[in-house]
Design goal:
With 422 residues, the chain is of the alpha+beta class. The chain folds into two domains: 193 residues, no CATH class; 148 residues, Cathepsin B, Chain A (Alpha-Beta Complex), CATH 3.90.70. The protein has eight helices and 13 strands. It is globular, with a radius of gyration of 21 Å. The chain starts with 16 loop residues before the first helix and ends in a 26-residue tail after the last strand.
């Protein structure tokens, strides 16, 4: 583990210093971004070939390039390179930022402006904040990013070693521990109430969608029971929620592939457990209630709410990923106009900034579903310039998942000491 959240390779860095000086604080054009993308494709391909995940005829290549702008179209933030046969790479538009902020080799990039399209909105806000923070970033951080740009543009793969992954590369089809791709509409919303204002079905809520997938990952508990004292009335629409009706006397996880009916039951039970404020436009709940619900309603041994600014937030998150313990992260914009919950279910050590695997709960309802993406989270950004505001960490059930779940490769430092206070 490390406090700076970045790893370095010392050999060869001095050779690039003159070149790096030319890159300092430079806007990035499409040709430069394309060169970075070529190098990133080589890195991805090396990983997959190393574990014999690809056939001999498989080859990633660039299909199209599209610029990503701010919401008002006034500022260029990044270039999105869509790959064939499938995948995408997002290259930032300034050399004072990390070169590659997000990528996937098994998902198409979702351009839909739907409010539920978390990756698109997350990228826009994250990059906007990072661009705004450039003037107050420590010089050492800028030099680090300039060095990474130099490594990408030189194509020197020895300076961009892929590093170890949790889960190991090729072990799961998504790349992360969670191999489901639930979302907030049908069939997952089938047990949710009807919005009395719109007469439409209320959406599941991102907190419940993330929580349901983690419960399904652990394949625990065997049942969840609510009583009359758990019933409540929602704040926005005044919908009475009869909690006992959300009870599930017996949950059949089917080795991690439950039927749509069971998925809907779990999604609704998760919503009721966090006192979800249901509407058809968006359903909301807090991560603090989520952590309590894991322990009190679903009988998990541990689940801890933490603010992102906690000094050990990313160290705990890293260890959770190495121990195959998916977590939930809260993301928002600078004005707190929205808040979303996403699953973090993977970690990758690189010679640059750490990469985290995110599951966005954006599933089969989209023509080009996005199960997940690797993402460089804004660890170490100045206060007020990060989209991550909190998380539910140390989520652990009394037993390991069943045979349908991926197993951890426990080569990392094991957990030690007592559980953190709840």
């Amino acid at each position: 583990m490390k406090s700076s959240r970045v790893r370095f390779l010392a050999p060869g860095v001095l050779i690039l210093l003159v070149f790096i000086g030319l890159l300092h604080a430079e806007p990035v054009g499409p040709e430069t971004a394309a060169k970075v993308t070529e190098t990133q494709i080589e890195i991805i391909s090396q990983r997959l070939v190393k574990v014999d995940y690809l056939g001999a005829s498989y080859a990633l290549s660039v299909n199209t390039m599209r610029p990503l702008y701010t919401r008002d179209k006034e500022g260029l933030l990044a270039y999105v390179f869509e790959l064939k046969p499938q995948g995408f790479i997002v290259v930032t538009a300034n050399t004072d930022l990390v070169p590659v902020i997000a990528y996937s080799n098994n998902s198409s990039f979702p351009w839909d402006e739907n409010p539920l399209n978390l990756l698109l909105h997350m990228l826009r806000e994250d990059l906007r904040m990072r661009m705004a923070a450039r003037e107050i970033l420590p010089e050492s951080v800028k030099v680090r990013y300039n060095t990474q740009w130099g490594n990408y543009l030189s194509g020197n793969l020895t300076l961009l070693a892929p590093g170890d992954s949790w889960p190991p590369e090729g072990q799961t089809w998504t790349g992360g521990w969670v191999e489901s791709m639930w979302h907030q509409s049908s069939p997952y919303w089938n047990e949710c109430p009807i919005d009395p204002v719109t007469s439409d079905r209320c959406v599941v809520g991102c907190v419940a969608t993330a929580m349901g997938q983690i419960i399904n990952f652990w394949q625990y508990p065997d049942a969840v029971i609510f009583t009359d004292s758990d019933s409540y009335t929602t704040n926005t629409r005044g919908i009475f929620i009869d909690a006992p009706a959300a009870s599930i006397p017996e949950i059949d996880y089917n080795d991690g592939a439950p039927t749509p009916e069971v998925c809907a039951d779990i999604s609704y039970a998760c919503g009721v457990s966090v006192k979800m404020n249901y509407t058809s436009q968006g359903s909301g709940a807090s991560h603090g209630d989520c952590a309590n619900a894991y322990r009190n309603y679903f009988d998990f041994d541990r689940a801890q709410w933490r603010e992102e600014e906690s000094l050990d937030f990313y160290d705990i998150l890293e260890q959770n990923m190495k121990d195959s313990m998916p977590a939930q992260l809260g993301i928002t914009d600078a004005g707190w106009n929205y808040a979303h919950s996403v699953i973090c279910d993977g970690f990758r050590e690189t010679t640059g900034d750490d990469e985290w695997h995110l599951n966005f709960g954006w599933g089969g309802g989209n023509p080009d579903p996005l199960p997940s993406s690797w993402y460089v989270l804004p660890a170490g950004m100045p206060a007020g310039y990060t989209i991550i505001f909190d998380g539910v960490l140390n989520i652990e059930a009394p037993r390991r998942p069943g045979p349908g779940a991926p197993e951890a490769d426990f080569t990392a430092d094991p957990r030690s000491g007592p559980a953190p206070p709840q």
